[in-house]
């Protein structure tokens, strides 16, 4: 079937770019569908590693399968030490997201079977990257800040270890639970720009490392994953609720985009993931007795709803949650990427399993010829 070359919407809005069994944003039923399950419901009963299994294997894990997933990820924690040496060569003003991009890209050279696109090999590659990515992510930040690399602690759960490497302290169970839920919410989201980028790259039969490296670059942008860091800088620029409201009004007067609001798919409703993350912020505020960030965020929601009819996306509430967990701001987007690695790997596996090269056309608006 061939579409008319005249049909064009800037930003490919509404265009169906791929068929997938992985996920779908059903805006009518208000569900984020992940292989037939509702992600929001899963966030109440399941953890990140369940979603990892669901995405890569097609179903939720039984107890024994879960144990196997846990072990498989731990077996893959080891990282070639040269990755740290490469990071040490980067200029110190490199953003950790670029450090992560470089580290991930360098891992390609250590894959001795890199040209093999067989389904099982590709899935194993996905698990290996999931095992390695938290260490790459955290150390990109540590090394660029002149600190020694930190190694994973295999005695901890996947998410507890990730948080331990970030803060240097073994987290309490409730902290791990909140962090794990954030990873789950970030795990997969249909066809955002980064997933599209990964699938476009994979469609040339290029490898998973290249596809994911391209996705890091995409996710870094403020219109996408980079928004979570931008939200926290914005919140930190205000010291009272009134300050924050004023900041937002000023941005709107100047016709600036307010980070953490709006979404191509949920333009007229709140991102359902943001609601869950807001609950985590409430939980954290009750724990430390400090409600200022929550009050600022709620006031911001009201301003944006009344002035622009816009609602928060996941990044708006992820930012203050990560702040209260003691996570450095420059790690917010790299953590988003690390969590999304499973979704991206599953998309690359799917693309390689049933591939056709992406090669769209343009509407020519140049000089006459
Ligand atoms: C997890 C994620 O990656 S979620 C996305 C994270 N990104 C952000 O939070 C960045 C801020 N948000 C935005 O820039 C946008 O809402 C996007 C990029 C997410 C979606 O963009 P699009 O679907 O292309 O919408 P577009 O940018 O065309 O906006 C439509 C209208 O809403 C306005 N608008 C959209 N988002 C915002 C915003 N955050 N602040 C102010 N105005 C906005 C636009 O100015 C535009 O208004 P106009 O028609 O008067 O010019
Ligand atoms: O779906 C999108 O366009 C962006 C997003 O929310 C995500 O990647 O989680």
TrEMBL record:
CDD domains: citrate_synt_like_1 (cd06118)
InterPro entries: Citrate_synth-like_lrg_a-sub, Citrate_synth-like_sm_a-sub, Citrate_synthase, Citrate_synthase_AS, Citrate_synthase_bac-typ, Citrate_synthase_sf
Gene3D superfamilies on file: Citrate Synthase, domain 1 (1.10.580.10), Cytochrome P450-Terp, domain 2 (1.10.230.10)
Protein name listed in UniProt: Citrate synthase
Pfam families, per the entry: Citrate_synt
Record keywords: Acyltransferase, Transferase, Tricarboxylic acid cycle
Example of a GO cellular component annotation carried by this entry: cytosol
Provenance organism: Alkalihalobacillus alcalophilus ATCC 27647 = CGMCC 1.3604
Record's catalysed reaction(s): oxaloacetate + acetyl-CoA + H2O = citrate + CoA + H(+)
A GO biological-process term: carbohydrate metabolic process
Pathway: Carbohydrate metabolism; tricarboxylic acid cycle; isocitrate from oxaloacetate: step 1/2
Gene Ontology molecular function: citrate synthase activity
Protein family per UniProt: Belongs to the citrate synthase family.
SUPFAM superfamilies: Citrate synthase
Record-annotated active site: 263, 315
